[in-house]
Amino acid sequence: MLAGMRADIAPTSRRHGAWEVAVPAEGHAVPGVEVVGFRDRSGGRFEERILPGPAIGIVIDCTPGNLEPLDGDAIEGGIVVGVSPPAARMAGRAVDCIELQMDPLAAPGLLGVSPAELNGAPLDLTEIWGRDADRLRARLIETRSWEDRFALVREALAQRRRSSFRVDPEVADAWRRIRAGHGRVPIGDLPGRYGWSRTRSWSRFKAQIGVTPKRAAMIVRFDRALRRLGTTASVAEVAAEIGYADQSHLHREVLKFTGRTPGTIAADPLWTVDSTAWALARAA
């Protein structure tokens, strides 16, 4: 066992067709970080667009092969993407990986960089963590157990955590309100809550979260809609539930962010796997 894992507590693991998904056992979470393991037993090729979302995304391949951005160099330590990355796709084969979703408020202390620095092309985790990223991946490759893999990730995060990185309390409060309101917060009212001008509020928020409050609200709402599209809810039901003006509004926004229609996404088994995995992670 690694990092104090108890033998009587095991990760939650489920099969979805050829895919196996796993999440850490209850009580083993890292504050500000959600972790999921994905394993494709079909051995097929995996290719998906990298999407914006309300978290810093990190994907670490647990095999000797490489997950890599298309039209870019191979990445060996782990792919890191910001809250609002440019349109890009990630590919791999016989995927066996760990994916982390890191809250922007936690990212500076764990990654050592501001979320605003991560909104360009996907980065290699080695560019941020150096040889620590290579060592973590090497140990993950040697380990098949989800329990031990999650322990390794938790151990690595604990070693990297730095208390010197601070986010303005006002920015943190605004971000939490946007998330708690699922993107349906009166953005124009936020600066007045903190006695800030709109210019200062927008500038500080973008510098520390990576996007403006308006863009953050749009991404939070889109992410929630995307998760619901992977369920049995109809597109019209999702649009009404999430707060889009109508089904056409949802259609345009999903198409803009994903290059696909909501109906296509809802019918894609990979999106069902993804939605189910993160629902498990948030319920753990």
Automatic annotation (TrEMBL):
InterPro entries: AraC_XylS_family_regulators, Homeodomain-like_sf, HTH_AraC. GO terms for molecular function: DNA-binding transcription factor activity; sequence-specific DNA binding. Keywords: DNA-binding, Transcription, Transcription regulation. It holds the Pfam family HTH_18. PANTHER family: BLL1074 PROTEIN (PTHR46796:SF15), HTH-TYPE TRANSCRIPTIONAL ACTIVATOR RHAS-RELATED (PTHR46796). Residues 187-268 form the HTH araC/xylS-type domain. This is AraC-type DNA-binding protein. Coiled coil: none annotated. It comes from the Bacteria.
